[in-house]
Design brief:
This protein has about 270 residues and is an alpha/beta fold. The protein is built from 11 helices and 7 strands. It has a single domain (about 15-260), classed as Glycerol-3-phosphate (1)-acyltransferase (3-Layer(aba) Sandwich), CATH 3.40.1130.10. Strands 1-7-6-2-5-3-4 form a 7-stranded mixed β-sheet, sandwiched between helices. It is a peripheral membrane protein.
């Protein structure tokens, strides 16, 4: 099903477009960094894994970060908590995110704002070969960074759920196999509760557990040599990412228990 609005990204962004986009991302990032550093209490484990992937990976190696989804403010606040502010002011190094078109892009002003913020509108249920996923793959093939919530929605129950295969397609079909960094977080739905009136809260604790980077070059190459279908490769990749993400869940829950107990022990 095509998007209900015009494609929001120019084929050849002008200097003015890039400047406005940079300002948009930079201002949102600055506010988010302030909120996570001074208004919330954040504890991060293995943050260097993500920092090294963002800052030090080979320029030809694309990056995919995969996280659980507990709140509508997960992005950009999580990103702001884990990377230097200067990345928000360097547009070409900043992540592309995937956002549901029927939630994030419902109004013209939202379409403009979120597209300037490098958010790609995705139609849930429209499959892994829709235009937005093709566009995401193009960004990876240019060495870019895609951040994806592979649960496909805000997970209100917080129970492990089957990840969508879109991330598997991005890994399997990229020109250069992306580096994949999983991260699990707890507490973002305290910062922005999933109930009306949806007002951000101050002084809340957030815990983030970053997993070791995953490399799929060998797996993808071997499966292709064995004439395995792209669907089989997508599933195999997604299964591994899902397994690693929910291993982090257990570790993050313990980290969050320690984080929440730090006040009483001080």
């Amino acid at each position: 099903m095509p998007l209900s609005f015009d494609w929001p990204f120019p084929e050849k962004p002008s200097i003015l477009y890039k400047a406005v986009s940079t300002i948009t991302i930079g201002l949102v990032g600055s506010f988010s960094k302030f909120w996570m550093k001074y208004v919330s209490s954040v504890r991060i484990e293995n943050g260097e894994f993500l920092l090294n992937a963002v800052l030090n990976r080979h320029p030809d190696r694309p990056l995919i970060t995969v996280a659980n989804h507990h709140s509508c403010m997960d992005d950009p606040l999580l990103i702001a908590a884990t990377i230097p502010l200067r990345i928000f002011w360097t547009r070409h190094r900043m992540r592309w995110a995937l956002g549901a078109d029927d939630i994030v892009f419902t109004m013209k002003k939202h379409q403009i704002f979120f597209s300037l913020g490098k958010t790609i509108p995705v139609t849930r249920g429209d499959g892994v070969y829709q235009r937005p996923m093709n566009f995401a793959l193009e960004q990876l093939n240019q060495g870019g960074w895609i951040h994806i919530f592979s649960e496909g929605k805000v997970n209100l129950t917080k129970e492990p759920m089957r990840l969508k295969w879109g991330v598997g397609r991005l890994v399997a079909e990229a020109d250069v196999c992306p580096l994949v960094v999983p991260l699990y977080h707890i507490g973002m739905d305290d910062v922005l509760p999933n109930v009306e009136p949806y007002v951000p809260q101050v002084g809340k604790k957030v815990s983030i557990y970053v997993g070791e980077p995953l490399m799929f070059d060998g797996l993808v190459e071997e499966m292709k040599k064995d004439k395995r279908s792209l669907q089989e490769i997508r599933k195999a990749v997604t299964d591994i990412i899902q397994n690693e993400l929910y291993k982090l869940k257990v570790k993050c829950e313990e980290l969050h228990r320690q984080h929440r107990g730090s006040d009483s022990s001080s």
